[in-house]
From TrEMBL:
<protein>
    <submittedName>
        <fullName>Uncharacterized protein</fullName>
    </submittedName>
</protein>
<feature type="signal peptide">
    <location>
        <begin position="1"/>
        <end position="22"/>
    </location>
</feature>
<keyword id="KW-0732">Signal</keyword>
Length: 216
């Protein structure tokens, strides 16, 4: 099944194509070094409005006591060749756990502080949160049995898109954004495997059949 969402990254990595979110263009890289893609999906049963955004990727670092920081220099101090209208932030599970943040809900309640910090550093508005899932990118992550409802939707920041990425992808992008600085990235919305499955003719027929059996 061909998906519309992609993450591409150039250079530094030997990456393979998979079902996927947006693209990551790494500094000092060339197209001849190859393009990498990583899967990114909407959370099951919560399909995002379609978006196709290009911006700068910033890492959110969680420290002791579940405090969040964005350890990047002011945008004005960077030698950027392009203007960007969006900022995209990435959260990484292991870093969250080390800082005693066990759910994304704990980070979302601090979103106003995070958005203000990004604004004060001169970056464009944050429009996407890339959230590392509990499963890796080679698994069908994003289902409600693995990712808890309250972990996403109940305290989500307003006017912010949420995109799930594999746990391994989160580790990779979070580390790169810390080591290389803000990374140009393009993120394209994709409903993902589980939302496609829920609306597939086979699953709809299965649900109808179960209701018929219960009502009989």
């Amino acid at each position: 099944m061909l998906l519309r969402s992609w993450i591409w990254c150039l250079g530094y990595l030997a990456c393979a194509v998979s079902n996927v979110v947006g693209w990551v263009h790494l500094p000092n890289s060339t197209a001849s070094q190859g393009i990498a893609t990583f899967p990114s999906f909407d959370y099951e049963d919560f399909i995002e409005p379609f978006y196709n955004l290009t911006g700068l990727l910033l890492p959110v670092v969680v420290t002791a006591g579940c405090s969040i920081t964005v350890p990047v220099p002011p945008l004005a101090s960077l030698d950027t060749k392009h203007e960007y209208n969006s900022t995209i932030v990435v959260l990484e599970r292991r870093n969250m756990l080390r800082g005693h943040c066990h759910t994304y809900q704990s980070v979302f309640v601090q979103a106003p502080q995070l958005l203000q910090t990004v604004k004060e550093l001169g970056y464009p508005p944050v429009q996407v949160f890339l959230l590392a899932a509990l499963l890796n990118s080679d698994e069908n992550f994003g289902n409600s049995k693995d990712e808890y409802f309250y972990d996403f939707e109940s305290t989500r920041p307003p006017n912010i898109h949420l995109a799930l990425i594999g746990k391994d992808t989160g580790q990779l992008l979070w580390t790169l954004a810390q080591e290389k600085g803000p990374i140009p990235i393009r993120v394209v919305q994709d409903p993902g495997f589980w939302n496609r499955f829920r609306t597939s003719p086979l699953e709809v027929a299965h649900i109808v059949f179960r209701y018929i059996l219960v009502g009989a």
